[in-house]
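Why do we care about 3D structure at all? Because function follows from shape, and shape follows, mostly, from sequence. That is the central idea of this module. The next example makes it concrete: a single protein chain, its amino acid sequence, and then its structure expressed as tokens.
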Amino acid sequence: MIDAEAFERLVEEHRSALHAHCYRMLGSLHDADDAVQETLLAAWRGLDGYEGRAPFHHWLHRIATHVSLRLASRRPRRVLAYTYGPPRTDTEDLGEPILESVWIEPYPDADVPHGAAGPEARYEQRESIELAFVAALQHLPATQRAALLLKDVLGFPSADVADMLETAPAAVNSALQRARATLDQRLDAVSQQ
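And the structure:
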């Protein structure tokens, strides 16, 4: 068993990538913060169960995905403010007050994970957390969202994604096909970047 300090050093290089992944899954910086904390706590508690068959960051992303799926199932879907309801022109009747924050929050530019990526990869990393993309992701069922993020954004092989989601590769490919079709309908052809 490694000590807490060694564990912290081990996970530190993965923290920003985990945070970005949880943000994409949940559409909220605060929820992503909570998900990363839960992920690292679960990883610490389950470190003895890590067998080393897959790279360490695969294992961490598997945990982060399951934590995010659990958190997403407990709360309403995050939406952009304009999709929450029609604009009001009558200032006497503003409708029911919104008691919980349901809007997607933008990801701070300073926190975009870059690692040792080249210019093209940095552009893709930045694009993968832009508000329009994350907003479109929120229209996907959680498992489709997870499959798409793990495969298309993070680049994990389909077999690894199936293992992470505890499903068959055919189910992952089907979820990816449906997710891509939905995103094609929801996203503009030109990126915000």
